[in-house]
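If you are new to this repository, start here. Below is one unmodified record pulled from the training split, so you can see the exact layout before writing a loader.
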Amino acid sequence: MAINSWPVEERPREKLLARGPHALSDAELLAIFLRTGVRGKTAVDLARELLSGFGGLRGVFAADRTRLCAAAGLGPAKYAQLQAVLEMARRHLGESLKRGNPLVDPQITRGYLISRLRDLPQEVFCCLYLDNRHRMIALEELFHGTLDGASVHPRVVVRKALEHNAAALIFAHNHPSGIAEPSDADRRLTQRLKEALALVDIRVLDHFVVGDGEAVSFAERGLL
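And here is the target side for that same chain:
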């Protein structure tokens, strides 16, 4: 049965307008994005199949272009739309962070860093540059690959911080394994960077290690 034959209160779009997006299931939200189904299947049916095949919404968003475009009912246009939605969500979180204080709104900071880093296939080390009121100036990805004392250069971190006229920094990097627990190498690296930045009077406020949907804070663990 086509969705437009369903009772009005059960149609995803009408349900969202009447009750808000929080009232919809993942399949209903994805169905609104898909707009149409395929022969013999409604958009909700198709959404359920996609969620099952990709392991949930995160799997759909994280899928590469080739795999996603091969799924029934999808193609390059839908892939582009999905990537645009994901990037808009990241930018929304980034703008929220710029307007606020990462120390006052730690969950916004966590959410932003998780959205940026958790699905990357390799380790990426980022710096979040803050002004003297701890408002976000910018976030940059500085180093890629296995992170250790040889691959992350304190002089580069210091130079970039001075270029941004930052008063403080928050570091972040991901563990592609999905385990967010800081390693001994992470601790040594953080201490080296903290000491280098102290020479130019720039504070290190935190270092987040991003795993599979979580981010561990050095500051909360008492590791700074």
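Two things worth knowing about this chain: The mean pLDDT is 84. Strands lie at 124-130, 136-144, 168-174, 203-210, 215-217.
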